[in-house]
């Protein structure tokens, strides 16, 4: 077996593995699909290992091929990192983030200016939707998800956020109004705002306050946390929401937590990225900044 491999063959393999297609790899590298197939065949013959299963018109990595693909992708990321560093800091970099709408609206957007001031050479592109993205086939660098964790594709890193606290929140005028809110039983006089995607609902809250019976069949219902928080700010009722997501409104005095900031904690959000790209400066900088901001927010809640 030869000690050296063709970089051209490795490049063809990496593109085919990432795109799961010889044809798409050929389109990306401006060659023919037969040229991609030939280069991969050279690798397979050189090492005596099959890298792909050919299934009809598609290709699927073998176990050996998957391990090789992860190593090659990591190596290419290191080359990309070294190339960017060689080029100096004059060139801007683009960080593409996908997030759930509520986290993007309530937490990330108000703080992006801080990240940009610390990283002036990184331009941020923020996309928001409830659908997860495929990090391997889209130009997305980071995917921030919420809810039940699903099995991620090989090569994906999943970093959980710190636990977030869920408590009743309302406008100050409502808490101190004609029907003041001082005890849990006072909620029977107020409209409940249901945040239907939140991992903790009013039914769960009543289990912790067994002496209180609320009519949870009534009230306002929203399928986005940012809408439930906005409704509470407008004085439409009491929401049961994340202190992390409502931190800006709490700091501004637009919302209060009538029973304090202690409550059930859930680990709902995750920070998702490809292992092969984890050491890219733009991704590493954003990851460190985000988790530092989250921890500072938790400390601020405990000081209240």
The count of strands amounts to 12
Strand order of the largest sheet: 4-3-5-12-6
Number of helices: 10
Q: What is the fold-level CATH name, i.e. the topology of the largest domain?
A: D-Maltodextrin-Binding Protein, domain 2
In sequence order, what are the helices and strands, one letter per element? HHHEEHEHEEEEHEHEHEHEEH
CATH superfamily of the largest domain: Periplasmic binding protein-like II
Helical fraction equals: 40-55%
What is the average of the pLDDT values?
A: 86
Radius of gyration: 25 Å
The CATH class of the largest domain is Alpha Beta
How many discrete structural domains?
A: 3
Architecture of the largest domain, according to CATH? 3-Layer(aba) Sandwich
Shape call: elongated
